[in-house]
Amino acid sequence: MITEKIRTLIEPVIKENGYFLDEVRYEKELGNNFLRIIIDKEGYIDLEDCIKVTNLINPIIDEADPIEENYIMDVCSKEKGCE
């Protein structure tokens, strides 16, 4: 399953940087494919955390290229959810 492959790729770097990988979802919404990476940490997750994790995992996912079709990656917090 694609979500498990992505989890395996990105979870180590997420943990190394003080975050928890809560969930990886790949879903279609309104005709668009979304790769949703839901993170958590001790304390509050803010926009800067989401940007940091995006910058950490984007090169890993790009290099592995596990998804053939176009998609939008969305890194968000467990508390706030992805929109």
How many runs of DSSP E, i.e. beta strands? 3
What is Rg?
12 Å
CATH class: Alpha Beta
Shape: globular
Indicate the mean pLDDT.
Answer: 93
* CATH-defined superfamily: RimP-like superfamily, N-terminal
The low-confidence runs, each spanning 5 or more residues with pLDDT under 50, are none
CATH architecture: 2-Layer Sandwich
* End-to-end Cα distance: 23 Å
- How many domains make up the 3D coordinates? 1
**Roughly what percent helix?**
25-40%
H/E element sequence = HEEHE
The computed structural class is alpha+beta
Secondary structure tally, helices: 2
Strand content: 25-35%
Q: What's the CATH topology name?
A: GMP Synthetase, Chain A, domain 3
The biggest beta sheet reads: 3 strands, mixed
Short account of what is shown:
With 83 residues, the chain is α+β, with helices and mostly antiparallel strands.
Describe the structure.
By secondary structure, the protein is an alpha+beta fold. The protein has a single domain, classed as RimP-like superfamily, N-terminal (GMP Synthetase, Chain A, domain 3), CATH 3.30.300.70. About 40% of the residues lie in helices and about 30% in strands. It contains 2 helices and 3 strands; from the N terminus they run H-E-E-H-E. It has helices spanning about 1-15, 45-65, and strands at about 20-30, 30-40, 70-75. Strands 1-2-3 form a 3-stranded mixed beta sheet. Helix 1 (about 1-15) packs across helix 2 (about 45-65). The radius of gyration is 12 Å and the shape is globular. The protein starts with a helix and ends in a 6-residue tail after the last strand.
